[in-house]
Structures are given as structure tokens and as C-alpha cells.
């Protein structure tokens, strides 16, 4: 008797690709942009959303991915912005089938942008297509300047690279030449931004980038 073997990893990836395609079709039909924020725990993803949502004139919603708790979704909800929390119960990234399910709970007829805040992690969230239009790499000053080359996939895949917490530059040793040089080597085309949610640096540039991506998507 021959033994039938199924490569689970490949099967999971293939199923995920179907969900990602379905998400893109659903969102294209509605003209909604989806942006996937990926960075280490504490790099400032939720704070960036708090500082920009509702102030940029766009109708937004957020899908929050965390191992546990609904704390980030509660922070977004406090802004009056629709948010849904996915708890991965130990999983270190979001997958397209969960995102697809979550879309059913969002007011898709009244949205311009859906943000995904992925599970805080510089590694595997970059490997998974969750149906987004753009992945954004978020790296913060206190993490140190060596992250792009140590975690290259995210910085290669990203449509934009954002350095957060720039207000800390006077207090932390951070070699910007090294950081931006490595980013340029990995992903010469990606726009780059320096942001501080504490002093407001770069927040307008961030919102302009989101608006530009939305216009590009709607123009087709
Ligand atoms: N100095 C400084 N601190 C910041 C800035 N943005 C966020 N923080 C602080 O960094 C900490 C983590 O911020 P969060 O926005 O919760 O980080 P996160 O990436 O959402 O974290 P996880 O969801 O756990 O992955 C908080 O104490 C924020 O106040 C900034 O621009 N400058
Ligand atoms: Mg967060
Ligand atoms: Zn993972």
C-alpha cells in the first residue's frame, strides 16, 4: 500500500494564498486600502495609529493582532475608530483566513483604509500575505540601528520603512548612517520616514503616504 503524504506547510501556505486573494478582491470592490504594520513589540505601532487616525480625514478601521488581551483594540476603540482584536493564543503572526473572517465585522461600505497591526515580531509576519496592499516596516530608535540586516525579509518586502521614536535620538546611541544605508541596500525603492509620536515629527508625511497609496489604489 502506498502512503500518501501531505506537506502541511505547503497546504497551509496555499490555503492562505486563496484567502489573501479573496481579501484583495473584496477590498478592491469597495476601494479600501489595506496596510499591514509590522515591527517589534513596543516599536510604537499602536501609538502611531492613535496619533493619526481620525486626524487625517480618512475613514479607518484597525485589525489588531496580539498573542493575548484586547488592550490595543480598546485603545483604538477609545478614538471612536472601529477595531477588532484577534488573539493568536501563542501564535506569532496573523494569517489571511483570520483577517478574512474579521472583515465581516467591519463596516466595509464606510471605510477608506484598514490597518492591520500585526503581532509584535520582526520575523514571520513578513512571510505571510494577509491580503494587504502594503507592508510597512516599523523600527524604533531604542531597538538599535542593526535591525534591517539582521531581519532582512521585512525590510526587503516593505513598501515603506519607518523609523519611530526619533525624539530619543539625542539620548540613545543610534547610527543613522548604518540604519539608512542598510535599508537602501535591501530596498532601494522604498520610501523612508522618520517619525516621533511625542513631538509630531513626520506624522504629516506618514498620512500623506497613506493618502497617496489610497489614491493609487482607487485609480487602479
Ligand atoms: N519616546 C517615544 N516613545 C514612544 C513613541 N511612540 C510610542 N512610544 C512609547 O513606546 C511604548 C510602546 O508603544 P506602543 O505603541 O504600545 O507599541 P506597539 O508597537 O503597539 O507594541 P505591541 O503592540 O506590544 O507590539 C509606549 O510606552 C509608547 O508611549 C515615540 O514616538 N517616542
Ligand atoms: Mg500595539
Ligand atoms: Zn509566526
TrEMBL record:
It holds the Pfam family cobW. GO terms for molecular function: GTP binding; GTPase activity; nickel cation binding; zinc ion binding. Coiled coil: none annotated. This is Hydrogenase nickel incorporation protein HypB. It comes from Dethiosulfovibrio salsuginis. Keywords: GTP-binding, Hydrolase, Metal-binding, Nickel, Nucleotide-binding, Zinc. InterPro entries: CobW/HypB/UreG_nucleotide-bd, Hyd_mat_HypB, P-loop_NTPase. Residues 35-193 form the CobW/HypB/UreG nucleotide-binding domain.
Amino acid at each position: 500500500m502506498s502512503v500518501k503524504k501531505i506537506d502541511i506547510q505547503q497546504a497551509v501556505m496555499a490555503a492562505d494564498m486563496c484567502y489573501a486573494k479573496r481579501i484583495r478582491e473584496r477590498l478592491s470592490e469597495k476601494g479600501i486600502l489595506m496596510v499591514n504594520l509590522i515591527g517589534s513589540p513596543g516599536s510604537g505601532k499602536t501609538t502611531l495609529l492613535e496619533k493619526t487616525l481620525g486626524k487625517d480625514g480618512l475613514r479607518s478601521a484597525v485589525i489588531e493582532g496580539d498573542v493575548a488581551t484586547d488592550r490595543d483594540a480598546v485603545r483604538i476603540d477609545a478614538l471612536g475608530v472601529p477595531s477588532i482584536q484577534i488573539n493568536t493564543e501563542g501564535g506569532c503572526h496573523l494569517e489571511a483566513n483570520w483577517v478574512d473572517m474579521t472583515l465581516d465585522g467591519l463596516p466595509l461600505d464606510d471605510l477608506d483604509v484598514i490597518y492591520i497591526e500585526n503581532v509584535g515580531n520582526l520575523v514571520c509576519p513578513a512571510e505571510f500575505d494577509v491580503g494587504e496592499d502594503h507592508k510597512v516596516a516599523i523600527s524604533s530608535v531604542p531597538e538599535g540601528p542593526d535591525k534591517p540586516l539582521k531581519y532582512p525579509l521585512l525590510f526587503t518586502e516593505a513598501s515603506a520603512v519607518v523609523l519611530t521614536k526619533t525624539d530619543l535620538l539625542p539620548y540613545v546611541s543610534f547610527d543613522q548612517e548604518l540604519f539608512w544605508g542598510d535599508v537602501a541596500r535591501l530596498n532601494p525603492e522604498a520610501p523612508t520616514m522618520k517619525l516621533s509620536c511625542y513631538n509630531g515629527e513626520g506624522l504629516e508625511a506618514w498620512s500623506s503616504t497613506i493618502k497617496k497609496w489610497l489614491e493609487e489604489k482607487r485609480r487602479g
